[in-house]
Amino acid sequence: MTGAEPEKQDPTIEILRGSATEEELAALIAVVSDAYAQEEAAAVAADRRVSAWQQTRRPMRSTMRRDIPWGRFSG
To answer: pLDDT tens, 51-63?
Structure first.
């Protein structure tokens, strides 16, 4: 891996205090999973903005033709 894309890790839930029942944990996982899925679906990259400089600049000049002599005449 070149580091261009981070490794995908599974989310974890850790109960620090108290004791949750299986139903409470299932409800928590369902709510958090749904919120995460909605946030992931709504996340889009911002459109790349084109600056005024990029809009008005001329395109690159084509390469010079060496087969045509200077001034279009030979001799």
So the answer is: 777 776 666 677 7
Entry pTM: 0.44
CA 62 vs CA 31, 59, 65: distances in Å: 59, 9, 9
Q: pLDDT at residue 46 above 80?
A: no
Looking up tokens 């889009």 gives 44
Q: Are 36 and 11 in contact (CB under 8 A)?
A: yes
32 Cβ contact partners less than 8 Å away, ≥ 6 residues apart: 11, 13
